[in-house]
What we know:
Layout: H1 11-38, E1 51-55, H2 56-66, E2 69-71, E3 81-85, E4 94-98, E5 111-113, E6 118-120, E7 127-129, E8 137-138, E9 140-142, E10 146-149, H3 166-180
Antiparallel strand pairs: 1-10, 2-3, 3-4, 4-8, 5-6, 6-7, 9-10
Amino acid sequence: MPVAQGPKFDLRSAAVIGGIALVVAFGLGIAALFFAQSSGNIEVRLGDAAFQRIETDRMAESIADQGPVLWPDVAGGSRDIWLQHVGDDNGSGWTAFDARTTGASRDCNALWDADARTFTDPCTDTVYPETGEGLPQIPVFFDGRELIIDINGVHNADQFQGYLSDEDFARLEAEAEAEAG
């Protein structure tokens, strides 16, 4: 007596169906995020709000040897920043600032001139001091060993009172009062 054969397993069909299922699931996930965000129920935040855990001893040594550090914005290219250290005390003298003026193209990133110890905007020939004064500044906090660079400006000096020396904390408080006042 003949035995009927069962259905054959077709690898190509299974792969196509699996691929379609993944695309549909991805589309539904994106749609859910879009609707949740537009209704105000969810906040999408990619990455940290601040650079953290920058060891000052090693970084200060590197800057002294090779100059300030340029961190390019790999996500969108709109926020390249410089980190600079001036002085002999690794617990102070830190500045972080945008590499170019607001609205300028990426071709206008300020360039470090080690001999003159200044930054120069290649588009306008504007010269900035080694602290980057004149370029948009980014708050830098120190916890006794590591730096926190508040790239998004989401913190205030009160949140970092334990991280700062009393002198630096008093300076930040005075700056905040001057801005508010």
